[in-house]
Design brief:
Length: about 300
């Protein structure tokens, strides 16, 4: 299960009720900020999440509306002294800009109050947890080093406690052996196989954060079976040429992606002031019904289908 909180949902420039791009994905004790537009630190406080454990920041691409807030956040973290180490993960072009911002503007000539690691990402796994991975994938937008992020729980087979008890498997290391795929022999001589007490494989939850995006064909395969896709809706079809020229998709294209890959839910963000929510939603839901538009501070639980 992933918990997704939107901190900023506007496109390129802030709107009265929408801050610049940022969201937080939480999984157990882990928290990952995805993008950090200007003003994100105040959004973080207003959301109630606060700064604690916010030591992984993933940036999708090197546009100002997605990373300028890093300056304010690292400055505040340095003063509060609540985090010893921050890892900022992004493509090369983004990191070059972030490096300038941190070292030539924020902490210029001063002692660094904490360790800040700038970690260049390539397509593939960029963070491996006990039971989930974060995979960076390239997207076409404008310029180099644009990425989206896939949050993927590992699939698992549940241990069927009731069945094990019924078969007389004691509470002890025997159960651990069975989970590890080893057969055991009980005191009465019966052999219990792992498949006797393990349930069917349960697919892990899949959350795709596409970031700014110029086309969807190249990422469709990766999105197959997603529980939730977060995609931009900067433009509508009536601005199709504008969208293509600026490296963005339309709300309809986002909905077609969700439909074609069999996603369960589409959440639209990166909303510009040129269209009303009603028009955006109408265009998207005509193609894919289970669509909503994220607002700042909206929270979603991305869990397995019931
Ligand atoms: Zn943007
Ligand atoms: Zn962009």
């Amino acid at each position: 299960m992933f918990e997704l909180t939107f901190l900023g949902t506007s496109a390129s420039v802030p709107l009265p009720k929408r801050g610049l791009s940022s969201a937080v994905v939480a999984h157990d004790e882990h928290r990952f900020m995805v993008d950090c537009g200007e003003g994100t630190q105040r959004q973080l406080l207003s959301s109630g999440l606060g700064f604690r454990r916010m030591n992984h920041i993933l940036i999708t691409h090197p546009h100002l509306d997605h990373f300028l807030g890093i300056g304010g956040i690292v400055s505040t973290l340095g003063q509060m002294e609540i985090i010893e180490n921050v890892q900022i993960l992004a493509g090369k072009s983004t990191l070059e800009k972030v490096h300038e911002l941190i070292h030539k503007v924020v902490f210029r000539g001063a002692r660094m109050p904490m360790q800040i690691d700038l970690i260049e990402i390539k397509p593939g796994v960029v963070f491996g947890g006990d039971d989930f991975d974060i995979v960076a994938f390239p997207v076409r937008h404008r310029g180099p080093d644009c990425f989206g992020f896939l949050f993927q729980e590992h699939s698992r087979r549940p241990f069927l406690n009731d069945k094990a008890s019924a078969l007389g498997v004691p509470n002890g290391p025997e159960r651990k052996y069975l989970v590890e795929g080893k057969a055991i022999t009980l005191a009465d001589g019966r052999t219990i196989l792992p498949q006797d007490v393990m349930g069917d494989v349960q697919r892990g939850v899949k959350l795709v954060m596409t970031g700014d995006l110029g086309e969807t064909n190249s990422i469709a395969k990766l999105c197959v079976g997603a529980d939730t896709i977060v995609a931009e809706a900067t433009y509508l079809e009536e601005d199709g040429d504008l969208a293509r020229n600026n490296g963005h998709i339309t709300a309809r294209t986002a909905a077609m992606l969700a439909r074609d890959v069999g996603a369960r839910q589409l959440i639209l963000n990166h909303i510009s002031g040129r269209h009303t929510e009603r028009d955006i939603l109408a265009e998207a839901t005509a193609v894919f019904q289970n669509t909503c538009i994220a607002r700042d501070f909206d929270e979603f639980v991305v869990a397995r289908a019931a």
